[in-house]
Every structure is written in structure tokens, then in C-alpha cells.
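A favour, since you know our C-alpha cells better than I do. Would you make up a two-line entry for one protein for me to read? Write everything out right here, beneath this request.
=====
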Amino acid sequence: MSAFRRSLPLLAVSSALAAVVVTAALTPRATGTASSDAMAATAVRTETDAGLLAVQHAAERASLLQLAAASSAAQAAKAQAAAEAAAYQSSAAGQTAALRARGIPCDIHAVACVSLSRQEAWLMRGGRVVYGPIRVATGRASLPTPTGNFHVWYKVVHGWSTTYDAPMPYSVFFYEGDAFHEDPVTVRSHGCIHLSLKNAEYFYRFLGYGDLVEVRY
């Protein structure tokens, strides 16, 4: 066998070893590159997810801030409305409106209030009813009780009508010859306001000179 033929197996083995060495040398680089790419991709995804979460959290915070602002605005509007309602209720107009809602036709300045349509009367102080409603009998159609604002100008316990020659106990005059006084509340008057004996005495003691008497339809 020639020397060349003897050297062929050695060359084959050497080539194989070289291939193994080359493969071994290349394989770690390829694996390392793939791992680096995967890590980079993971990092990108993590950063993207973090960015999306940050955006979502920012949107949620903005929404909560808007809800809080809307709630504060609603509370402020409610408080303002309550304050305005309280101010109106404490005002003369508000108190008068409250009286009207109860069927009392006078304003808060009246001390004696008379409703011709309801045939009722009240005594008041500072816009508050302190007595009534009570039943009354006002003037008949031919001699009606006048409507308007009047003031007490004369009082007499044992009053007497010279025009009709009749007693007028506990008379409280508020307009010329017209007065609150005791007389049957089932009979219409000649312009005065009839009260029961008990109520006539109460009106007489309660009302003072100059007190406002309001007569409304």
C-alpha cells in the first residue's frame, strides 16, 4: 500500500474532527443570537405592555377626576339651590307664598286676615298663624264687606250700632262702621264681620290699635 493510501483514513478523521470543531464553534453563536433576539423581543413587548397600562391608568385617572369634578359640581349646585330655597322661604315673598298655599289669602304683614270666599279668618304674627281659621259671616251681597288693607282704629267692649239699633259686643273697628264683633255666624252682616262670642272676645283682646287687617276675596 502506498503512503498516500495510508494517509487517507487519517485525513478523513481529521476532516470529521474539523467539522465537529467548526460546528461546535458556530452553534453557541447561533444560540446566543437567538436568545438575544428573544430577550429583545420580550423587552419590547414588556415596554409596550407597560406603555399600554400607563395609558389605561392615565385614562382611568382622568375619568375618575371627571367624575369627581362632576360630583363636586352637582353638590355645589344642590347646595346653591338649597341656599336659594332657604333664602326664598325666609323672604317675605316666600312666606306669603307659603300662606297662599295653605289657603290664607293675606301676606305676612297682616295681623288679622279675612277670606270672603271661604268665610274664614285668622290672627297672625310675623307671618305665622296664631289663631284660626275660624268661621265668620261677612257682608251680604247688597252690603258687602270691602276688600283691601285696613287698620284697627277703634275698640269697644259693649259696642252698639246706631244705624241698626243693635248690640255689637267686642267690636274692633277697621273701616268706618265695619268691625269684627259678636253676632251669629250663620247670618250675613251689613258689612261687619260676625264672630262667635268666644272668637269675638279673643279678637278683641289680641288686636291692637293700628294693627293691619287684610280682607281678601
Observations:
- Strands lie at 112-115, 120-125, 128-135, 148-151, 154-161, 166-175, 178-182, 193-195, 212-216.
- The chain has three helices and nine strands.
